[in-house]
Design brief:
heterodimer, A: 263 residues, mainly alpha, 2 domains, 0% strand, flat, B: 284 residues, two-stranded antiparallel ribbon, two-stranded antiparallel sheet, 4% strand, elongated, membrane (chain B), PTS_IID_man (chain B)
Chain lengths: 263, 284
């Protein structure tokens, strides 16, 4: 299935909103493949497939942290193009995921280009302040940098969507058999990365045992993540209550011991 | 205790509406011109635009002093947007009191901003991107993968609401309570407690994610005199279903602890996939 020029441009705009933080909340919302995959699906007339493929791709980027201006992977591009290729090429979610992850690595180029070029507009902003034209500051902070971002986001993404969609089916036909199985194996393993990155931040100290507890509960009960999330929340509340009760008792005891030492 | 000594009424010259506008400017345009030179510096300046005209109104030297404020706020600044919005509220309150004649040096405001920016960015990035987003995403991804678009919609709406409500509330917390309250909050055990709870909840949900969404299975079948031994079904599943995904995830975690980058791990996964797929050791 090939897509129209209009659809390709809309997909480019979707990527731009997700990547360029306009408004900023695009970073927490539309940038996530769960959301941009769904919107790409709406553009291509198949919201459900878009959302489901986006959701699968998002597993890889669960805990990706962009801090201090770094960007480990461009999930907005991976989500937008991954969903596009899945819909136009009839790919299953795992194959789309294996295809989307390298795209996400390529996409970081756009981010670093943007972070570098944006410095130009800072000096324009300084000039507005020097002339006391504070009401024009939005031109330097929003308008011009966003026009620049639009150019470097929309053009490559639209081209990749338009030409990629035209060839993706042939490409997948070529792959049928063992290569496709390999794509699915890779797609199945990739979510481990997203989970492992998240674990870097939370798999600490006393909370470690709960990873295995959650795993065992899910394996043997088959519960979905919503009920599991509720159970997890309750366990967290109970656990902190117990832990801090102990804490307080201990610090009280320590205080008393300190007092005794003083005498 | 503090209240008793503060008998002096705090005066305000900035109307509520202008403050809301400033908070909106911060949260909405904070990264529209994100750059390596000043990071969110100009966004800081943009946040001050709605309030700047109310400062030094009756001062004959007002224009020059306002310019000084704007130049000060355009300096390098980088923080977590939602957790850091209290710094902007605090900076506006300080500039307001300074304009009313309080003896606050300009350098004091700048150094207070820069000293709060590090800890708030650290905590903010960990709680926001390391706990809140992964848990919300995990649950919403699970909802969507049952075959509905509602997971995407719920995540989009929830995240928008949380972002703006939290950012605005935090902005006014900083404006009203000032720097002492922010430091109090950073030093009190409350934050550690929140972090511990978030870790417990996060780990449990991640455990469930491994069980549901990481797929590693062995494709080997040993044929011995007529009977076939399916390694995955008769060995691994018998020990515990999902034992391979759990082991693989822990391997990736361990490699990241060894300072492997995510790109290196992606390459490793691709290599394992190709080798495993060609030899038939791994199955889809």
């Amino acid at each position: 299935m090939s897509i129209s020029v209009l659809q390709a441009v809309l997909l480019g705009i979707l990527y731009w909103i997700g990547e360029a933080n306009l408004p900023f909340v695009g970073l927490w919302t539309i940038q996530r493949p769960l959301v941009c995959g769904w919107i790409a699906g709406i553009i291509l007339g198949d919201p459900l497939t878009g959302a489901m493929v986006g959701a699968s791709i998002n597993l890889v980027y669960l805990g990706f942290i962009s801090a201090g201006g770094s960007m480990p992977a461009d999930m907005a591009l991976a989500g937008t193009l991954g969903a596009t290729y899945a819909i136009t090429g009839n790919l299953d979610a795992k194959t789309a995921l294996a295809l989307a992850v390298p795209i996400g690595i390529l996409g970081t180029l756009v981010w670093y280009t943007r972070m570098t070029l944006d410095s130009v507009f800072v000096h324009l902003g300084d000039r507005f302040v020097d002339k006391e034209q504070y009401n024009k500051l939005w031109i330097a902070n929003v308008l011009l940098p966003q026009i620049m971002s639009a150019a470097i986001c929309i053009i490559p993404c639209s081209l990749a969507a338009y030409f990629g969609a035209a060839y993706i089916e042939d490409f997948v036909d070529m792959l049928s058999g063992t290569p496709l199985t390999i794509f699915q194996i890779i797609g199945g393993m990739m979510p481990a990365l997203g989970i492992a990155i998240t674990l870097q931040y939370i798999f600490k100290g006393e909370s470690r045992a709960f990873l295995f507890l959650g795993f065992v509960i899910a394996v043997y009960s088959g519960l979905g993540l919503l009920p599991l999330g509720v159970i997890a929340l309750l366990m967290a509340i109970v656990y902190t209550q117990l832990a801090y009760k102990q804490h307080e008792d201990k610090s009280k005891a320590a205080e008393e011991a300190d007092m005794e030492e003083d005498f | 205790m503090a209240e008793e000594t503060k008998t002096k009424e705090v005066r305000h010259v900035i109307p509520k509406k202008a403050l809301y506008h400033a908070a909106f400017n911060w949260e909405t345009w904070v990264q529209t011109n994100y750059n390596y030179e000043r990071m969110m510096g100009m966004a800081c300046g943009h946040t001050f635009v709605p309030v700047i005209d109310y400062l030094y109104k009756d001062d004959p030297d007002g224009a020059a002093k306002r310019k000084e404020v704007m130049q000060r706020e355009m300096e390098f600044f980088n923080v977590h947007p939602e957790f850091g919005s209290c710094i902007l509220g605090m900076a506006i309150a300080l500039e307001e009191q300074k304009s009313l004649g309080e003896p606050i040096p300009g350098e004091f405001i700048t150094s207070l901003k820069t000293s709060l920016m590090g800890p708030l960015a650290g905590i903010g990035d960990t709680i926001w991107q390391g706990v809140l987003i992964p848990i919300l995403l995990a649950i919403c991804i699970d909802i969507t993968l049952t075959g509905t678009v509602w997971g995407s919609i719920i995540y989009l709406i929830l995240m928008l609401v949380i972002t703006y409500v939290f950012s605005f509330a935090n902005f006014f917390f900083g404006y009203k309570q000032g720097s002492e309250a922010i430091m109090d909050f950073l030093e009190k055990g409350l934050l550690d407690r929140l972090l511990l709870g978030a870790q417990v909840m996060g780990c449990t949900v991640m455990g469930g994610l491994i069980a549901n969404y990481v797929n590693v299975s062995c494709g080997l079948k040993l044929v011995t005199s007529g009977s076939t031994f399916n390694v995955q079904k008769q060995l691994f599943d018998a020990v515990m279903p999902g034992i391979l995904p759990l082991g693989f995830t822990m391997l990736v975690y361990w490699l990241m602890k060894k300072r492997w980058t995510s790109i290196k791990i992606i390459v490793l996964i691709i290599v394992i996939g190709i080798v495993g797929g060609l030899t038939g050791i791994l199955a889809a």
